[in-house]
Amino acid sequence: MQVVSFSGYGRTELIEIPRPILREPDDAIVLVTTAAIGPWDVESFLSVGGEQVIPGGEFAGLVVETGEDVSHIQLDDLVSNTVHHPLPNGHGEMFGSSTLPGGHAEYVRVPDADITLTKIAVSGEERAVLAGGSAGLGVNAAESALSKSPNGKYAVVGCDPIGMTSLITLKDAGAANRLIAVEDHTARRTLASGFASEAFASDGQLPENQADIVIVGSIREYPGFDTVAKLVKPGGSIIFSEPYAPTRITESGITFTEDVMISSAAWPTNLDAKKIVTAMQIRRLDLTPLVSHVIPLDEVQDAYEAAANASQGVQKVLLKP
Q1: Per-residue confidence band for 217, with pLDDT thresholds at 50, 70 and 90
Q2: How far apart are CA 79 and CA 172, in angstroms?
Q3: Fewer beta carbons within 10 Å, N or C terminal of the chain?
Q4: What domains, with CATH codes, occur in the chain?
Q5: With contact defined as beta carbons under 8 Å apart, do 31 and 107 qualify?
Q6: Phi and psi, residue 214, nearest 5°
């Protein structure tokens, strides 16, 4: 089968490897029909000397084979995955990492299929593919903000697909008049302005110390501590959408004032993904604005270059094997 491989910094190629096989009785094999390029995939694309991986944290497809212990997922089901696969020891691994091959391939092996895969409808495939990854993180960050400060003022910094999902969720919760967006790319800022009361560039006239909660989108496009520090009220909260972000920010030497609470969203579970898929199906949650490009797998270099360069209004880039 064909899979995406990184041949060097910022370079992709399609290579042939054997199709995956079932290893455990709770495995499933999925024929990939749609995959998304996430920030974790772009990070590997732009790494030098990193471990070889088959990228693709977010994917959807048809179940073509199941192990004997798989009961909830059936052959020919159309499914999407959760990006983060929890392990019995309390740790986890991500699809598209050195330990768990991802979905930028024709086929992918999915462990713990019953709790890793979510059944989806054909009509919503190109949005449901995000439910267990980018969209799930954005929804979880927004729900955390609403829980911490139900009537507060919110700011979303970074209107990438994760941040945009937070914006959409907060607007749907009736918070649009208490919500601002910060995004430096013009096209993304224009999109965000339809979901918030105001949208600013990070070097613009930001309202200082007015947000009870600041949600930060993907840290790959993190605009800097000064922007967040300017927005958040004393005693307010900063919620990073990506669970690993606080550790990375701390390791980079950035510090926050002691009176500001720092937290992160949780990785979306199978239950979270199911709720998002259901909300999309009943048209309570519209993630259509998140998908900007759909590109064939054999044009993967163009797809990754687009995903790595958001300046042209790129949101989510999907691959079609």
Answers
A1: very high
A2: 26
A3: N
A4: 2-133+268-320 (3.90.180.10), 134-264 (3.40.50.720)
A5: yes
A6: -115, 125
